[in-house]
Design brief:
Shape of chain A: globular
Number of helices of chain B: 14
Largest sheet of chain B: 2 strands, antiparallel
Strand content of chain A: under 5%
Mean pLDDT of chain A: 86
Low-confidence stretches of chain A: 1-13
Number of domains of chain B: 1
Mean pLDDT of chain B: 87
Number of helices of chain A: 14
CATH topology of chain B: ABC transporter involved in vitamin B12 uptake, BtuC
Radius of gyration of chain B: 20 Å
Order of helices and strands of chain A: HHHHHHHHHHHHHH
Helix content of chain A: over 70%
Strand order of the largest sheet of chain B: 1-2
Radius of gyration of chain A: 20 Å
Distance between the termini of chain A: 13 Å
Number of strands of chain A: 0
Oligomer: heterodimer
Shape of chain B: globular
Distance between the termini of chain B: 11 Å
Order of helices and strands of chain B: HHHHHHHEEHHHHHHH
CATH topology of chain A: ABC transporter involved in vitamin B12 uptake, BtuC
Chain lengths: 323, 318
């Protein structure tokens, strides 16, 4: 995580065969199509506006959590506190956003600033992000328990109304997924600022020589990641209409898995917003499929693990190189 | 990887493995001051007996983390749970079956460790994802095999875990001897030196003739075996296997290894440093439980202390 700054491969990928170059994009799509195909074949009724809305609604919070994780991974770091932080946001939402919005938003803003400071100090002291975010996961869980000791509360009405909205023709979760992809592909992948931000993770030395502050960039990345996680928490509390400190511990690892499924790598600032969103949707659909094919509940998590292995195996075979 | 040049200032500073002990001593001393020295030995004794489990799983984690940047074993909690169920069921509460249960836990853990390494190597996927995927499958296995059933551990195992001679817990002494052996293996054997050399610079280690793949494979196997051992002992201590028994040890194993002086960048490990970190975390839990603060405060303090210790314990690079 720290030792790879002198490897230039990230910035200058060698020309590879077309298939190998496109594999990171095509493979997540192919898997999604296969999974969707299975769903539609087994439950044709799912191939409808309402079927898709129901099946995909739980992917929305995971999409935002995965994008948050993606920003951290683009810095060569890893965030083990994502799930705890998302849980914290649901608690603040369920307790304060309805009764005292000013206080609620202030708490959320404060937490975002704190996440930025985590990014700053992790860089300044060269601390291992795994351990720092591990510590932060306890901090967020503790704070969430202060805000809301037992699951419950009531998310504000305007928030719970959002998932009820039915846009014309295209189900809401798909609209959200497409918007998220567009926003991130344009800002992070196509803009100059996005390139510099990714460069802070891929090659900090080069970014520093180009006159940028790596500390500032990494702080910005952590702040943006926190904002994405806030979206995730709000989406989750909108769906559940309440909050709970321990609602989303699985998001930490599922978000990492989404990024990797989507073609991201742990080193060199290599990430793909498109792949990440598709990865998050795929992981959500997998549990539906496993229910449809009557996989006993005890095997569901195992099947997810096996799928992860199969996908990565396929990617390794197609692209024939590293992750 | 840049090896930091030796600096005069560095020679004066403490080894990273000392910080856990210092934090533990400060915590214990502070508590003694507040309570006028009452119950100090009991508190220490309770914390030490809980440390055995985190030291076991943390030692395995240390082997993996020390074997190079990015290496980590996220499957420990699942391995702990599965090995606990398998060994408890095999023994069925019979004292005579104890060796069978112990060997089963070690072998099963070791095999899962080998599978972990196989995934990392064959699929060329990052260890964090490979061991995560493996842990999903192992968790399913544990749920399928263990389910709701609870088999009580053999009486001899439960007795052994609380057996004291002259007020000293025998399991604790054995665990300390075990750490001594690990210390010797790490620093006095070709294998141990190879592991640390590999962690510092895999390329250089390979050029020096070290069988990189083999050494790293054994690190994952050791991690699986130690998690298996932890599951065996923990089930004996708590009266049987349970589905969530390993949960706490994912974070705990990483925390005690790193706070105990294992470098996340690889290449540095300390068998005894883990005791300091484990003791510190156990004392913290004991203390926070006794203060009657809510769960929120406990988590908050645990998190903050991890942050403070890592802030001071990490040597500055560059």
């Amino acid at each position: 995580m720290t030792a790879v700054t002198d490897v230039p491969t990230a910035a200058t990928p060698a020309r590879k065969p077309a298939l190998a170059r496109l594999a990171p994009i095509l493979l997540p799509i192919a898997i999604l199509v296969v999974i969707l195909g299975i769903v539609f074949w087994m439950r044709p009724i799912a191939m409808s506006y309402f079927g898709l809305t129901l099946m995909l609604k739980l992917s929305v919070p995971l999409i935002f959590a995965a994008l948050s994780q993606m920003l951290i991974i683009s810095q060569g770091d890893l965030d083990l506190s994502t799930g705890a932080y998302v849980g914290f946001v649901t608690c603040v939402s369920a307790v304060y956003l309805g009764s005292d919005p000013a206080l609620g938003w202030a708490i959320i803003a404060g937490s975002v600033v704190l996440q930025g400071l985590v990014g700053l100090f992790t860089w300044l002291r060269r601390l291992p992000s795994i351990v720092v975010t591990l510590g932060m996961s306890f901090v967020w869980l503790g704070l969430a328990l202060f805000v809301l000791p037992t699951p419950g509360g009531q998310a504000p009405n305007w928030l719970t109304a959002i998932p009820q909205w039915r846009p014309p023709y295209v189900p809401l979760p798909i609209v959200v997924a497409i918007l998220a992809i567009l926003v991130f592909e344009v800002t992070l992948m196509r803009s100059a600022a996005g390139a510099v931000l990714r460069g802070a993770g891929g090659n900090p030395a080069a970014v520093t020589r180009a006159g940028w502050s790596v500390a500032g960039l990494r702080t910005a990345a952590y702040v943006l990641a926190a904002i994405c996680a806030v979206f995730s928490g709000l989406a989750l509390s909108a769906l559940t209409t309440s909050g709970a400190p321990n609602i989303a511990p699985a998001y930490t690892l599922l978000s990492i898995a989404s990024v990797i499924l989507g073609g991201g790598a742990f080193i060199g600032g290599i990430v793909s917003p498109f792949g990440t969103v598709i990865g998050a949707v795929t992981l959500t659909l997998v549990s539906s499929v496993l229910t449809f094919v009557n996989v006993p509940s005890v095997w569901q998590i195992g099947a997810q693990g096996a799928l992860l292995v199969v996908v990565l195996l396929a990617r390794g075979l197609v692209s024939g190189d590293r992750t | 990887m840049s090896v930091a040049p030796a600096r005069a200032a560095r020679r004066l500073s403490l080894p990273p493995s000392a910080y856990g002990f210092i934090a533990a001593a400060l915590l214990w001393g502070g508590t003694m001051l507040l309570s006028d020295g009452r119950g100090g030995i009991e508190m220490l004794s309770v914390a030490l007996s809980f440390s055995i489990f985190s030291v076991a799983v943390g030692t395995g984690q240390m082997f993996v983390i020390a074997s190079g940047p990015g290496n980590i074993d996220l499957s420990c909690p699942a391995v702990i749970t599965l090995c606990a169920y398998v060994s408890m069921n095999l023994m069925g509460g019979a004292d005579g079956m104890l060796p069978v249960g112990l060997i089963a836990a070690l072998v099963l853990g070791g095999v899962i460790g080998l599978v972990n390494y196989g995934l990392v190597r064959a699929l060329k996927i990052p260890p964090i994802i490979a061991t995560l995927a493996a842990s999903f499958v192992v968790t399913s296995l544990a749920m399928w095999y263990g389910g709701e059933s609870t088999v009580r551990p053999p009486q001899a195992l439960s007795d052994f875990m609380i057996w004291r001679v002259g007020g000293v817990q025998v399991a604790l002494i054995l665990a300390l001897i075990g750490s001594g052996v690990v210390h010797l293996v790490l620093h006095r054997t070709v294998y141990g030196r190879s592991l640390l050399a590999l962690g510092q610079n895999a390329r250089a280690a390979q050029l020096a003739g070290i069988r990189v793949g083999f050494v790293r494979m054994t690190a994952y196997a050791v991690s699986g075996m130690m998690a298996g051992l932890c599951g065996f002992l923990l089930a004996g201590f708590t009266g049987g296997a349970a589905l969530n028994m390993g949960e706490a040890y994912l974070m705990e194993s990483v925390a005690v290894a790193v706070l105990g002086g294992t470098s996340v960048a690889g290449g540095r490990a300390s068998a005894f440093g883990i005791w300091g970190a484990a003791l510190f975390l156990s004392l913290l839990v004991t203390l926070l439980n006794s203060t009657g603060l809510g769960a929120g405060a406990r988590y908050l303090f645990t998190g903050l202390t991890i942050l403070v210790v890592i802030f001071f314990a990490t040597e500055r690079r560059k």
